[in-house]
């Protein structure tokens, strides 16, 4: 894997150290997460973040274990880091960090206090909500190490305050149980019990959200480190509290072995692919130990069907996980209703509110069968896939229907945003894209051809599917090219002066990246034209992927910043989306255009934000600072897929 390590110049500078985040997933939807410098900058950061019934319903448990070293001289040195609502950062343990490494996906810190060197390693037990934190004396000593446990138990999206109930902490052998929800275990436990008031999260302040919370200092662990090699370890786990996990050092070793096996199974061609293969593993989870699913992004997203299906080939077929992928596709097929795939909202509700998620599902099934030769799955899912086409021909929810005049797919209903550009501000869609969106119709044409191919593989007649495919393809080629030299983004859209359903329609020629799918999909309706692709690239391409809108558009928003309304308003109005690099590279490959240098910026990004991973979004203007989730499934999956495809 790529070498991810930082020395004292990065570790000791709070701005640099706090802007680089690490993630250790547990395989069931929870995680440990923080920054290189140890400062918690988000409400979502913690050493034990526990998933609920769905990955999105997480709770923050153990927040931090703050180390303090008592030297032979009697001096006590604190190695933790907290920012307070006053603006003070205290303690400032990051100033004593001489190195941070991400080794096999696991973080390792090394503090130097003169001749004394203390190392910390952290891992989660694969398949269980359990974290192990191991501290080792590397040099110097003897010293005494204390670990102060800052705790809470709250929804990951909120905060807990001292004016509410005091957390219940019950003493048990070698530790405590907090709120009956999770257990702490380690040496020399001494209960404390007081509030730490006004802990500040700078990233929440940047996002326009409430940035402060109060933490409960539950107690501290302590142990002697007499000679190099001695350790003091703490474990914390949720779920079956009476089932003690393995020793901490064994958990670290188990996690390390598993991560190496994940990489080996993917058979990476180089260090970047190895890093992306391990990054992809974070998103494949089994909530509650049940059926496999995909987390769209850490730290705040759960499972979203559109994200899952866009990510499918990269997460499963490029990493040697076809059997798990087969299981996932079968489970999602069972959610089809009126020809639409269920979309599990982060609230836990099941909704049917995307026009493209179902079409991406058709694509995922087709790719699975094509890549693996698993025609049995194609045969099994064929009846369900036919219901998708039948429902779209007859018309289904939200005005989603095939226009019999041209065979293209139209969609839209008042107040809805059904494409991937689905942001809302105060309930009003920013880009409703009512009418016939370009990528939706590229996916529809691709889906018809993919289904026709599966039908023929099953020995059945696909003539009607091919007829509809030909009609839609001819209409696409006739209608989507715009006088501007690129493709219309939406055909038959309500004119701005008219509400949905009004008399006037127009064709929207805004320069957006959605058109890339018209050239990139396996059964794309258009052959790439170098001149057109160069126009698109000139207006949209950045080092981290295409922008969602060209900078010369009046609606362009160059900085994805501010409160929720400002961020949602700019989400698809110029913000960079790294996942779109996949369709761009595919289109260039099909057009015989070189993309040898297109990965340079995004590969460098692997060490800049979410370590070893790819962010959800970035600013549309230079320096294209990363925004959104630091760890995003489709960003990782698409980079891995097209990079591997080009080997």
Describe the structure using short key phrases:
647 residues, eight-stranded antiparallel beta sheet, 36 strands
Q: How is this fold's topology laid out?
A:
Layout (H helix, E strand, L loop, with lengths): L3 E3 L1 H4 L2 H5 L2 E5 L5 E5 L10 E5 L8 E12 L5 E3 L2 E3 L5 E4 L4 E7 L2 E8 L2 E9 L5 E10 L3 E13 L13 E4 L2 E4 L3 E4 L4 E11 L1 H5 L5 E14 L5 E8 L9 H19 L4 H11 L2 E2 L7 E2 L2 E2 L6 H13 L4 H12 L9 E2 L5 E2 L5 H16 L2 H20 L6 E2 L6 E2 L13 E2 L2 E2 L6 E2 H20 L5 H17 L10 E5 L10 E4 L8 H4 L9 H11 E2 L2 E2 L17 H7 L10 H10 L9 H5 L12 E2 L7 E2 L3 E2 H13 L2
Antiparallel strand pairs: 1-9, 2-3, 3-4, 4-5, 5-6, 5-13, 7-8, 9-10, 10-11, 11-12, 12-19, 13-18, 14-15, 15-16, 16-19, 17-18, 20-21, 22-36, 23-24, 25-26, 27-28, 29-30, 30-31, 32-33, 34-35
Pfam family, one: GDE_N
Protein name: Glycogen debranching enzyme family protein
Query: Which ranges are low-confidence, i.e. pLDDT below 50, for 5 or more consecutive residues?
Result: none
Amount of beta strand: 25-35%
Structural class: alpha+beta
Q: What is the typical, i.e. mean, pLDDT? A: 96
Number of helices: 17
Helical percentage: 25-40%
Radius of gyration: 26 Å
- Regarding quaternary structure, what we see is single chain
Largest sheet: 9 strands, antiparallel
**How many angstroms does the end-to-end distance come to?**
17 Å
Q: Quick one: how many beta strands?
A: 36
Overall 3D form? elongated
> What strand line-up does the widest sheet have?
1-9-10-11-12-19-16-15-14
């Amino acid at each position: 894997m790529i070498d991810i390590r930082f020395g004292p110049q990065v570790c000791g500078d709070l701005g640099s150290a706090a802007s680089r985040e690490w993630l250790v997933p547990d395989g069931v939807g929870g995680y440990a997460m923080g920054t290189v410098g140890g400062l918690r900058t988000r409400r979502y950061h913690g050493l034990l973040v526990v998933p609920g019934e769905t990955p999105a319903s997480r709770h923050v448990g153990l927040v931090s274990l703050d180390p303090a070293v008592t030297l032979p001289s009697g001096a006590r040195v604190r190695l933790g880091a907290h920012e307070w609502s006053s603006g003070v950062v205290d303690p400032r343990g990051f100033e004593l960090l001489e190195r941070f490494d991400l080794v096999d996906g696991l973080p390792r810190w090394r503090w130097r206090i003169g001749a004394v060197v203390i190392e910390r390693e952290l891992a989660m037990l694969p398949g269980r909500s359990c974290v192990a934190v191991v501290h080792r004396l590397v040099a110097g000593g003897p010293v005494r190490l204390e670990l102060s446990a800052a705790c809470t138990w709250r929804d990951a999206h909120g905060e807990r305050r001292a004016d509410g109930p005091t957390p219940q902490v019950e003493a048990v052998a070698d530790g405590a149980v907090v709120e009956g929800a999770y257990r702490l275990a380690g040496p020399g436990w001494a209960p404390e019990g007081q509030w730490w008031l006004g802990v500040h999260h700078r990233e929440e302040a940047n996002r326009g959200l409430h940035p402060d919370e109060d933490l409960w200092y539950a107690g501290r662990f302590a142990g002697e480190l007499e000679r190099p090699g001695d350790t003091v370890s703490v474990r914390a786990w949720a779920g079956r509290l009476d089932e003690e996990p393995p020793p901490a050092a064994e958990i670290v070793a188990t996690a390390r072995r598993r991560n190496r096996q994940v990489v080996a199974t993917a058979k990476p061609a180089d260090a970047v692919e190895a890093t992306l293969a391990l990054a992809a593993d974070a998103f494949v989870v089994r909530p509650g130990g049940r059926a496999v699913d995909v987390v769209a992004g850490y730290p705040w997203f759960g499972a979203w069907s559109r994200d899952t299906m866009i990510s499918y080939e990269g997460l499963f077929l490029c990493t040697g996980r076809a059997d798990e992928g087969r299981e996932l596709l079968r489970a999602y097929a069972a959610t089809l209703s009126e020809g639409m795939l269920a979309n599990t909202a982060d609230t836990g509700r099941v909704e049917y509110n995307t026009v493209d998620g179902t079409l991406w599902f058709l694509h995922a099934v087709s790719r699975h069968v094509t890549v693996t030769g698993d025609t049995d799955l194609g045969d099994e899912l064929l009846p369900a896939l036919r219901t998708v086409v039948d429902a779209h021909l007859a018309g289904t929810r939200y005005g989603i229907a095939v226009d019999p005049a041209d065979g293209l797919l139209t969609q839209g209903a008042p107040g809805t945003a059904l494409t991937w550009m689905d942001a809302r501000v105060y309930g009003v869609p920013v880009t409703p894209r009512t009418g016939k969106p370009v990528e939706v119709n590229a996916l529809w044409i691709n889906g018809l051809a993919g289904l026709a191919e599966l039908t023929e593989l099953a020995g059945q007649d696909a003539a009607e599917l091919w007829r509809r495919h030909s009609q839609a393809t001819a209409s696409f080629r006739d209608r989507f090219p715009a006088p501007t030299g690129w493709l219309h983004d939406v055909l038959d859209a309500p004119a701005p002066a008219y509400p949905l359903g009004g008399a006037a329609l127009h064709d929207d020629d805004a320069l957006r990246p959605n058109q890339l799918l018209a050239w990139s999909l396996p059964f794309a309706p258009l052959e790439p034209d170098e001149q057109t692709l160069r126009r698109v690239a000139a207006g949209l391409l950045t080092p981290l992927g295409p922008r969602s809108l060209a900078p010369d558009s009046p609606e362009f928003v160059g900085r994805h910043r501010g409160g929720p309304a400002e961020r949602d308003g700019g989400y698809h109005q110029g913000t960079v989306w790294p996942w779109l690099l996949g369709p761009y590279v595919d289109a260039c490959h099909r057009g015989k255009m070189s993309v040898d240098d297109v990965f340079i910026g995004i590969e460098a990004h692997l060490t800049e934000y979410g370590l070893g991973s790819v962010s959800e979004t970035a600013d549309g203007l230079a320096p294209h600072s990363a925004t959104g989730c630091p760890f995003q499934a489709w960003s990782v999956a698409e980079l891995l897929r097209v990079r591997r495809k080009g080997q």
